[in-house]
Amino acid sequence: MLIAPLPGPYGLYNVSVMPRFLLDSSRVGWQGAYFTDILGADEGVVDHGHERYCLQRGLHREGRRPLGRRTWQDVRVGISVWRSGDEQRFQWRNGGRSQFLFVAPGRVAAVLGDDRLLARAGQDAPLQSPLLDLIFDALQADLAQGSPAGPLVGDSLIAALVASLAAPATPAATDRLSAQARNRAIDFIEARFASPISLQELAEAAGLGVRQFTRAFREATGRSAHQYLLHRRVEQAKVLIRQGLPLADVAVQCGFCDQSQLTRTFARHVGTSPGRFRAST
């Protein structure tokens, strides 16, 4: 089941004053999810219903007043969750920086097997969760680095976030990858490692749900799916560098968006730059 990327950023906001977008996931193309880091206006009005899950990480204290009410509420830093079908109808003041993750119900269903498990929480008293903060930080860091593993890092982090907001799951024997399922997932990576690969595609190749596949793949290979993909890309880059190909061509053939991303990823994994690696071989 493939879930199309969400439109954005303007298609996901309905506010009286559009925010300034600092960072977003549009170039990566996550399946059924969209992340953006914004700087909101000092004041404005939001009045719309949600077709998707909306997770907002407020990084500033903000005043909110429900439409038609006179009393302002002080909303602290933290994470708020709106479900598909929920409404946001309020004025805000003292706006500032926030991060939003929009997730389609179908994406939640792909992870959990049910699109109704996420709880509505935190609108008036945002959640304080070190785990969710770490996931949001990791999503931002991956995007800031240019997403060298394509959508796999974001897909994995979003699956972890969705699972953390759902009822705890008990690991089952069916969560383990058979040798055939492991080989199917690895063969899929081998065939397409230079192209964007989604976690959903890998899970389908293995015959598991996303939540089960993420845990089972790490257990079977000792690496997460995105770590395995980056390892494969770097190993192929070594081969092409030894063959004398220009680094810009190596980057394209190994699935990196440009030579700069190849250099950063290669140095992090190998401990030296592609140029120095070439000189030493």
List keywords for this structure.
five-stranded antiparallel sheet, 3 domains, four-stranded antiparallel sheet, alpha+beta, Arc Repressor Mutant, subunit A, globular, 281 residues, Jelly Rolls
Topology (SSEs and partners):
Blueprint lengths: L19 E5 L8 E7 L3 E7 L3 E6 L3 E5 L6 E3 L2 E5 L4 E7 L3 E7 L1 H8 L17 H15 L7 H13 L14 H14 L6 H8 L3 H12 L3 H18 L4 H7 L5 H12 L3 H7 L1
Helix pairs in contact: 2-3, 4-5, 5-6, 7-9
Structural write-up:
The structure is a single chain. This protein is an alpha+beta fold and 281 residues long. It folds into 3 domains: 10-144, Jelly Rolls (Sandwich), CATH 2.60.120.10; 169-222; 228-280, Homeodomain-like (Arc Repressor Mutant, subunit A), CATH 1.10.10. The protein contains 10 helices and 9 strands. The longest helix has 18 residues, at 225-242.
CATH fold call of the largest domain: Jelly Rolls
| Span between termini | 44 Å
Overall tally of structural domains: 3
So what's the oligomer here?
single chain
Averaging pLDDT over every residue, what do you get? 85
CATH superfamily of the largest domain: Jelly Rolls
Percent of residues in beta strands? 15-25%
Helical fraction: 40-55%
The secondary structure category is alpha+beta
Shape: globular
CATH class of the largest domain: Mainly Beta
What Rg is obtained from the alpha carbons, in whole angstroms?
A: 21 Å
Figure out the total of helices. Answer: 10
- SSE order, as H and E? EEEEEEEEEHHHHHHHHHH
Strand order of the largest sheet: 1-2-9-4-7
CATH architecture of the largest domain: Sandwich
Which residues sit in consecutive blocks of at least 5 with pLDDT less than 50?
Answer: 170-174
Number of DSSP strand runs: 9
